[in-house]
Amino acid sequence: MSVDKSRQKTEVNKPMGGLKIIPLGGLGEIGKNTMVIEYGDDIMLADAGLAFPSDDMLGVDLVLPELDYLRENQHKIKGLAITHGHEDHIGGVPFMLRDITVPVIYGPALALGLLEGKLSEIGLQDRTTLTKVNPRQVVQIGCFRVKFIRCTHSIADSFSLIIETPVGTVVHTGDFKFDFTPVDGELYDIASLTAASESGILALLSDSTNTEREGYTPSERTVWRKLDEVFANAQKRIIVTTFASNVHRVKQILQAAVKYDRKVAVLGRSMLNLAAISRELGYMTFPDGLLVPVEEVNKMPPDKVVILTTGSQGEPMSALTRIANNAHKQIQIVSGDTVIISATPIPGNERSIANTINALSVRGANVIYGRDAGIHVSGHACREEQKLMINLCKPKFFIPVHGEYRMLVKHGELAVECGVKPENVFIIDNGDVVELTKDKGQILPPIKAGVILVDSSRAWEIDETILEERRHLAEDGMVVVALTLDHKKNVLAGPDVAMRGLNLPGGITPDDLVERVKHEILNSLKDRAVVGSLAEGELKSYIKEVLQGHFADKVKANPLVQVVLQEVAATKAKSLSK
Fold it and tell me: How many Cβ atoms sit within 10 Å of the Cβ of residue 578?
């Protein structure tokens, strides 16, 4: 039986005074996971993440959830619970703290170590209190009693949350899989889940990322066999890229380097920071002398070198992308180098990664990549593990989270297969409000939940209208028109026309088009009855509409049109006309 999502969202329901669950990010998308859990005058947050831009977000570096709801309800915010240290779960915290007060942030040591560095870098370390939690530790956040339990994921020190609320217990899985042979020996705390289930779980909020994949996610430990094989057979340098936050993967890479007597140079600030923090906190151990400065690499025998670098998602400015494009100052690909891309593409990054692989291959590298290569496993549960989670918890209500919309739908259907009533499964978007009591669940009218686009090089927020203009400019080019009018709307100078990036049809030269545009503008200004009644701003719009119509009809193009209009006083107009 399927879930009737349309009915849930179109019903006009009145608040019942129950528990509210409101995602600000992370639903219908990958990234910016930020969940509001609210009861009465108390709000707790679960994670505060960011996302990375898609290819069409020109000039955008980061994507954040809009936080208007938190600003409006600042007085209710009692604290934030962090599940783990990935950017899509902690990366939004520094931006949030700029204008929203979060009294205390609870989380695992590794996540807080990474977060502390971010906050210190921008001078926000005094805006909140960072409090480390241990497995099975319980903290009070307003009216919520939150128990942090160990889970297995692709980063060390990951937690799920068991949240006791005034209306019942809520389980928030965070990102998880069931890895029964984890690299660090830390198993998922299934015992705490089953204990909570015996007392009754009102709602389960569960990671949906791999809902489309059957079976089980392989253990992180399986990566070692392929890494060991590649290291054993590599004749020259080995260059490895993975997510900087994947401590388990980095740990195995360093172990392989030690086994095969290779030194390791680390490229990329995030990779260096994570290695330092992980070693300091005891999540990663390696002998002194294993790491060498990148400047030493070119002086060493190629078969004694490993380069560990950022760039697993083909980011334009990452070290691996610059190496692939022969633009790195210190490292150039030599034929016979082995490059291991130990990651899978985040949706939207496929083209960038393909371009990087192509560029590396052209330069003679042996590139090992892809889901079937054995050098990467996901940190997220596949369908059988998701079934296990649902059956362990036996929730009354089910809310799939962390995934694109089709993933949420399939996860909801999976919950129904596992015995959750269809009317108790809520497939929601960012901004939707689910309200729960002990006996009933419903969807209330949504709150505002958009996105904030950030150009981090300038620390500026980018308005979506600017982004739309950039797309428009990239696709169809630009036309700028400048002219000077007197107070009676007579043309004194111009029109001057400049065009950039237009793809003209055959038989029309740029000079021809410029003359046509000038003629079109002058003709449009001859209608004195219309032109004379327009204010300056209205006249600009009038000219713009005329030109857009001309380009659409005659050139089959839709360029961005900018009109620069100057009106001069009568005395100055007289001097200009002489």
Answer: 4
**Sign, CA torsion 80/178/222/136:** positive
Would you say 62 and 428 are in contact if contact means Cβ atoms under 8 Å apart? no
**Which amino acid belongs to residue 571?**
T
pLDDT of residue 307: 93
* Structural domains in the chain, sorted by start: 5-215+378-462 (3.60.15.10), 222-373 (3.40.50.10710), 477-577 (3.10.20.580)
* The pLDDT value given to residue 6: 61
d(CA 402, CA 383): 14
Residue 294 identity (one-letter amino acid):
V
DSSP 8-state code for residue 155: S
Query: Do residues 137 and 116 lie in contact, with contact meaning Cβ atoms separated by under 8 Å?
Result: no
Report the pLDDT averaged over residues 208-234: 93
Strand ordering across the sheet containing 104-107? 129-132, 104-107, 77-81, 42-48, 34-39, 19-25, 433-436, 441-444
Q: Do 376 and 346 meet the contact criterion of CB atoms below 8 Å apart?
A: no
Placement of tokens 């990054």 in the chain: 349
CA distances from 215 to 160, 393, 399 (A): 22, 19, 21
Other beta carbons within 10 Å of 368: 21
In terms of C-beta density within 10 A (0-12 exposed, 13-18 middle, 19 or more buried), how is residue 331 classed?
buried
Rg (CA), the chain: 29
State how far the Cα of 206 lies from the Cα of 410, in Å rounded to an integer.
Answer: 12
The pLDDT confidence band at residue 172, using thresholds 50, 70 and 90, is very high
Q: Encode 372-401: b = buried (16+ Cβ within 10 Å), e = exposed.
A: eebbbbbbbbbbebbebbbebbbbbbbbbb
Long-range residue pairs from 137-140, CB within 8 A, at least 24 positions apart, any chain: 139/79, 139/81, 139/106
Q: Per the structure block, which two tokens stand in for 149?
A: 């339990």
Joined tokens for residue 292: 């060498």
Q: Tell me the pLDDT tens digit for each residue of 77-131.
A: 999 999 999 989 999 999 899 889 999 999 999 999 989 988 988 888 899 999 9
Provide the pairing of β-strand 491-500 with 478-485. antiparallel
Strands of the sheet containing 460-462, edge to edge, are 62-65, 451-455, 460-462
Residue 301 makes CB contacts below 8 A (sequence gap 6+) with none
